[in-house]
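[Meeting: bench + compute handoff]

Bench side (C.D.) handed over the final construct sequence. Compute side (W.E.) agreed to return the predicted structure before the next meeting so the bench team could plan truncations. Sequence as handed over:
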Amino acid sequence: MIGGSREENAPVADRSEIRIRPYEARDRGAVRAIAIATAYGGEGDGLLDPELFADLMTRYATDFAPEGAWVAEWAAPPGTVVGYLAGGFAERPVRRAMWRIAPAAVAAAIGRGLLCRRPLWRLLAALPRLLAAGGRRGEADLAAYPAHLHVNLLPEARRRAVGRRLVESFLAEAARRGLPGVRATVLADNAGGRRFFERLGFRPLARLPALRPPAIRGMLDTKIVYGKKL
């Protein structure tokens, strides 16, 4: 799932406080922790299995294609990661990797007792509604936007233009690779995330049905796919 940031941009007084750099293997634990802590706007306590969520959200970037990831860390002292961007530059490699990631991640979650959690069965019961809603409601041609990303920031990194700088790093690399466009997905009720991408020049391409963790809402939601041409 490609997610969005809830950061609202504001002028930054001193950009030296937080620096942006390419992802390194030593950042893996911090990236996973941030993904869990910021899930669904900080409502991560409703996740069915936090480690499963982190696997599905971040493992492609951290373990298979780190060239599509950047982190934000305090400049002094360095090493404390407070945000990240994870993305991919093509759809097919992501799909191939997910066929390796998802089965193992689900099996591990089952070993941690996933099948014994009542919210899982509420989620499965809601799947027919998701399918009936139609997976391509208002969908545009996403082939023109092969690169995709999501951004997550801890609260202390927000309102410092950190999210913008992370996205700009990804956009620059995507343009260097000659890609025609980039996309990101945001839940429709995430007003801050929608404003964030719109201010960066992203425009709505499609509205698709989505499910939140049943422990939070247990209802059908809508996600918006945003795109930006390069």
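W.E. noted at the follow-up: Confidence is low (pLDDT under 50) at residues 7-13. C.D. will use this when planning the next construct.
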